[in-house]
Amino acid sequence: MRNLYIAGNWKMNMVPSEAAKYAASLAAAAKDAKVKVMIAPTFVCLPGVVEAVKGSNIIVSAQNVNDHEKGAYTGEVSCAMLKDIGVNSVILGHSERRQYYGETNEFINKKVLFALENGMEVDLCVGETLEEREGGRLEEVLTAQINVGLDGVTPEQMKHVTIAYEPVWAIGTGKTATPADANAAHAFIRGLVEKKFGKAVAENQIIQYGGSVKPSNVRELMACEHIDGALVGGASLTLEQFLPIINCVD
Ligand code: 13P
User: What is the DSSP string of 52-119?
Assistant: First the structure.
């Protein structure tokens, strides 16, 4: 039985003072949560949010990290910097980074390997565009994203990897994949993990669904065999919406 893992990707929302205030109220409200909970504020909000959730079981994650130890990489943030402020988790390969900042599977793989070598938990995002889905390329796209994105990762390191299936056409659009479609994509991803890392790893692999998850649809999505959590964008930005999502298990 896999435990549900619900994460909030705050993307480029909230200034540091708002983020810290919201994180403190979330930590208090979610103290009896039955699921694993993560929030991912933007870099400048991280120190205040870490402080605000101290002593709670909420995991604080970054939305990106650089693939070098340190040096002349203007505008970048390293694993060591994150770890120094108490952030040991990172989202990598989000579709917005792939789409707007040209991140390729190969580039994302470098970050995945570097983050894992540095003892961080990684949430690797994969998912197809509408054009790819309609063109019958879903499996081809997911195969490349998983096989290249996780190239060189060991079965042991996979304990520190979460996969988030986020169909690009469902992100921020209000269109959710049907539970059946999402479950089929998750089953396919689990099969890829099994081929690459073996049955035991695949059985324990947490695969989150992301794309317009809301209080109204979370339960039917989480009821699916291969869906083990959610990576939530818009609905993670308010307690009114995020709390019922976290509390989706009785
Ligand atoms: P929405 O929940 O706003 O569709 O965003 C999903 C997402 O991209 C989470 O990473």
Answer: HHTTSSEEE-BS---SSSSSS-TT---HHHHHHTT--EEEES-HHHHHHH---HHHHHHHHHHHHHTT
